[in-house]
Amino acid sequence: MSQRILPARPVLAGVAVLTALALAACGTTEAPAESAAPGASSEAVTLTDARGVEVEIPAEVEDVVALEWAAVEHLQVAGVPPVGVADVAGYTDWSGTGAPLEGEPTDVGTRIEPSIDAIAGLAPDLIVTVLGADDAAYADLEAIAPVLVLQGADAADPIGTMYADLRLVGEAVGGQDAVETAITAYEAHVEELSATVEEAGLTGTPLAHMDGYENGGQVEIRPYADGALLPAAFESIGFVNGWPGEGDAQYGLGVTDVEGLTALEEGTHIVYMTVGERDVFTQQLASNAIYTELPTVQAGNVHRLPDGIWLFGGVESMTAYLDALVAALSPAP
């Protein structure tokens, strides 16, 4: 789903059903206290991850491998940038603006098929991923180090899940203070943006965020329904979700075709993001009569946001997303 054409949902991307990929493994390498990473916990801890598994985390975790991009961001916020990252180039393309990669982590394969050899070669203390892998995949990783599996997303509480995953990572690496500071800063920024949206007369404006991609010569649309992280974020600053359809139970994502866009009410703004020159909204759909006759298209209410903001990320990504959204919709001075 993501690969390079369209932002794969977190971890792997499924078409209509998301198969969050992720593996995680924990490690038990203990470094001397004097060489511990800033904020690293001085004591081993046992945490229950999204699988319901109790994971024993060694003291003073320093070397961590992240197999999902949201996990990369959470680790950086917690003060322990990962030494290994799945698909470094993809992260740079899809997340490098909102949450720039820190350091020079080793690429450990793709998010769908991480390299066990590359991960083992780093001798990590911990491996962090999200729900979606099978037991055998987790077992392969756990042979290297302890595995901490994050929820990744939950349409029942997308913002709360983002916070919970970040806090779990913070506990694992001793970065609780940094995590709480980041959450407080995010919530303060949400309040500021809410005031900006109100002052601009945009409160209550319906938005429909969606991904567009070509599949076998046909354009497919992946709308972010109620329960997805993005609508939850933009609703928190005063917008409303203009997509009327339903999404899956984890990520809140749906699937439709061009004809399905006729369900959008007049006044709804279409918002999307892609990477590079592939843009079905300005290319393939430019000659599609159904699309070009949509009231929102006729009104010029279609907005491409800047590249490099991960739409399934954490507080830094959501801050960048909301800033870009407000900038795109605010009336020109």
Describe what you observe in this structure.
- Helix 5 packs antiparallel against helix 6.
- The longest helix is centred in the middle third of the chain and has 24 residues, at 176-199.
- Helices cover 30% and strands 15% of the residues.
- It has two domains: 33-184, Rossmann fold; 201-329, Rossmann fold, CATH 3.40.50.
- It is built from ten helices and twelve strands.
- The chain has a five-stranded parallel beta sheet with strand order 5-4-3-6-7, sandwiched between helices. Strands 8, 9, 10, 11 and 12 form a five-stranded mixed beta sheet that branches. A two-stranded antiparallel sheet has the order 1-2.
- With 333 residues, it is α/β, with parallel strands linked by helices.
Helices, strands, pairings?
Layout: E1 45-48, E2 54-57, E3 64-66, H1 69-77, E4 84-85, H2 88-95, E5 106-107, H3 116-121, E6 126-130, H4 135-142, E7 147-150, H5 158-173, H6 176-199, E8 206-215, E9 218-223, H7 229-235, E10 240-241, E11 269-272, H8 289-292, H9 295-298, E12 302-304, H10 315-329
Parallel strand pairs: 3-4, 3-6, 4-5, 6-7, 8-10, 8-11, 11-12
Antiparallel strand pairs: 1-2, 8-9
Helix pairs in contact: 1-5, 5-6, 6-10
Number of structurally distinct domains? 2
Q: What is the CATH superfamily of the largest domain?
A: Nitrogenase molybdenum iron protein domain
- The largest sheet has its strands arranged as 5-4-3-6-7
CATH topology of the largest domain: Rossmann fold
> SSE order in H/E notation?
EEEHEHEHEHEHHEEHEEHHEH
CATH class bucket of the largest domain = Alpha Beta
Indicate the percent of residues in helices: 25-40%
Indicate the mean pLDDT: 89
Task: Using the 3D structure, state the CATH architecture of the largest domain.
Answer: 3-Layer(aba) Sandwich
Structural class: alpha/beta
